[in-house]
Amino acid sequence: MDITSLGYRTDLMVRALEGSQVVPGPGYVTVRTPANPAFWWGNFVLLSGQAARQGAGPGLALLRSEFPAAAHVALGIDVTSAAAAGLDDFTAAGLDVHQDTVLTAGALREPPHPNRAAAVRELDGDDDWEQSAQLRAVCDAEEGGPPPVPAFIAAREVTRRTLAGTGHGAWFGAFLDGQLASQLGVFSDRRGVARYQEVATHPDARRQGLAGTLLCHAAQYAVSHLAATTLVIVADPAEPAIGVYRAVGFGDRETQVSVSRAPS
């Protein structure tokens, strides 16, 4: 199955670099992460647009056959606009529909208010990675909802650190007085496209230019070290972060559509 969505092409790229199984089927792709079964978007089915337009029933049946023990629902739809996805039937089935914005750039410009005080560098060593986990926990708690499963958190931390050591990218942090205040990852299979991962800034350190400064630093790394000609980032269009991305030169390209349901 040829993937139309740039968002999903880069999602699958990163999952494969992390060691997940990416298995194509007729009209769908299955992604499995046996080491972390609680990771929804490491254990999901990506439906073609044509398959999705057949309704929620066939997609849910396929997911159950691929993941019979899964308590969650996670289906991607390989389209570039919500209008092509046939979403009404998924909504009627009680699924949560998500429409994220995929943004791209060839290069980034300096943010309107760059942060000159922060030390911007790759994460290195146990203390850095412990601070990374703590920052992620703070940001997760701020978002509300049920707390992540501890086993999921532990497995994701191992995966992030391992991937950062493979040469396919890096995890960067902005440190203020030795404390990690903002972080992100950027990764590529060296075929011209680099994908940003999980931009997060501590609530007490926002609106100080940290995320924009990190984005630009990581872009320079992606171009020089990963041979990237296209930078890709995905954002919730309702969240303030998308404004930060646009301010440094990212432009809207397409919509990434997914449907999900949390375990009951």
- Rg over C-alpha atoms, rounded to the nearest angstrom: 18 Å
Q: In terms of structural class, how would the helical and strand content be classed?
A: alpha+beta
Query: Helix count, per DSSP?
Result: 8
* Poorly predicted sequence stretches spanning 5 or more consecutive residues: none
Task: Please write the string of helix (H) and strand (E) elements.
Answer: HEEEHHEHEEHHEEEHEHE
Number of strands: 11
Q: Mean of residue pLDDT?
A: 96
From the spread of the alpha carbons, the general shape counts as globular
What can you tell me about this protein's structure?
There is one protein chain. The chain contains eight helices and eleven strands. The protein has an eleven-stranded mixed β-sheet with strand order 1-2-3-4-11-5-10-9-8-7-6, with helices on both faces. The mean pLDDT is 96. It is globular. The chain is an alpha+beta fold and 264 residues long. The two termini are 32 Å apart.
Outline the secondary-structure elements.
Blueprint: H1 6-18, E1 21-25, E2 28-32, E3 44-48, H2 49-52, H3 56-66, E4 73-78, H4 88-92, E5 96-105, E6 119-122, H5 126-143, H6 150-164, E7 169-176, E8 179-188, E9 193-201, H7 210-226, E10 230-235, H8 241-247, E11 251-261
Parallel strand pairs: 3-4, 9-10
Antiparallel strand pairs: 1-2, 2-3, 4-11, 5-10, 5-11, 6-7, 7-8, 8-9
